[in-house]
Amino acid sequence: MKPTYLVNVQILRFFAAALVVFAHVGVEVGNVAARTGRSFDEIGLIDWGLGVDVFFVISGFIMYYMMHDRFGAPGAPVDFLRRRLIRIVPLYWICTTLMLAALLAAPQLINNNGLDLKHIVASYTFIPWPRADGELFPILSLGWTLNYEMLFYALFAVALLLPRRAGLTALGALFVLLILAALLAPDRFFLLKFWGNPIIGEFLLGTCAAALFIAGRRLSGAMAVALVVAGIVLAVAFFQASAYEHVWRLVTGGIPAALIVAAAVLGPALRENGLARALALGGDASYALYLTHPFTIKLFGVAGAKVGLPLVAIYAIGFVLTVLVSVGVHLWVEKPIGHWLVRKTASPKRAVRAAS
C-alpha cells in the first residue's frame, strides 16, 4: 500500500475497532453492575457497531487496491486466498479455541446457550450455523463478521479469474443476486438469508472508493473533514430515529461508513508524528483488538468487581487494557505466526521478498 493513505487507513482501522470495543466494554460493565447491585447506563449516542461497517468498507477498498492489476493473472486467485487465510485464520482459531475452553471451564461467566459438534465445526470453518438459541453466531460471537469477510474473499477470488472489467461486473452481479435470492428465500434457508444480507454491499462501496483512489481522485482537507462530519451526523441521526430497525444496515451503517472511509483514503495524508505512529500501531493491532477484547474486559471486569473498583474505573481502565493487550498479541503472536506461514506457503522467491 502506498504511504499516501497508509497512515490514514491504519488510524481509521484503530478507531473502527475502538468503537466496537467501547460498546462491548459498556456491556461488560453493565454485567458487573448487575452482579454487584449497582446501576449503570450505557452511552446510547450512536450505534457503536458502525465500526464493523467501517471495517467492511475498508476491506473492500484494500482488497481491490491490492489486486486491481492482477485480474486475469495466472495464480492470482490462489495467491489472494492464501494471503487472506494467513491473515485471518490463525488468530481467529486461537481465540475461538480460548472461548471454547472458557465455555467449558466457566460457562456461568459467558452468555451462551450450550455447545454442539456441528456448531463447533462451523465456527472453525466460517460457516454460519445456529447456536442452541437459534442465533447465527459462532462460538466467538464476534466471528459473525468474519463469516461475511470469507464470503467476500471467495467471491473476489472468483472475480480474479476474469479480466478486470468482467471480474468487477461479475462480482457486483453475484452480490446483487445473493441479496435478491435472500430476500425471496424462506427463513429455513438460513445460510442464504445470512450471506445474502444487504450488509455485504458495504464491501462493494469499498471497491468503489478504491476505484476512485486508483483513478487519482483526491479531496481537499476541508472536503475530507466535511465528509467525516456528514458520516457521523448521519450515523447518529439513523440511530436516534431507530432507522436500523426497518432500514437496511447497508444504508444506516454502510453510507456513513463509506463517507468516512472515502474521506480517509481520498483526503490528504496525515502528517507522521509520534501520535500518528502510535495510532497507526493501534491500526496494525486492530484485528487482534477486535478478537481479544472480550477476554480482556471479561477478566478485568471480574477482577475489578472483586476489589470494588468504581464502574467508571472499570470502564476506562478496561478499555485501555484491551488496547495494550491487543498490541502485545499483535507483536508477539499474530505477526510471528503470519511471517512463519508466509515463509512456509510461498514460493521461494516470494518467501525471500516476504522475509525482507
From TrEMBL:
Acyltransferase domain span: 9-329
GO MF term set: acyltransferase activity
Superkingdom per UniProt: Bacteria
Keywords carried by this UniProt record: Acyltransferase, Membrane, Transferase, Transmembrane, Transmembrane helix
E.C. numbers: 2.3.-.-
InterPro entries associated with the record: Acyl_transf_3_dom, Acyltransferase_3
Transmembrane residue ranges: 12-33, 45-67, 88-110, 136-161, 168-186, 198-215, 222-241, 247-267, 274-292, 312-333
PANTHER family, per the entry: ACETYLTRANSFERASE (PTHR23028), BLR2367 PROTEIN (PTHR23028:SF131)
Protein's name in the database: Acyltransferase
Organism of this sequence: Xanthobacter oligotrophicus
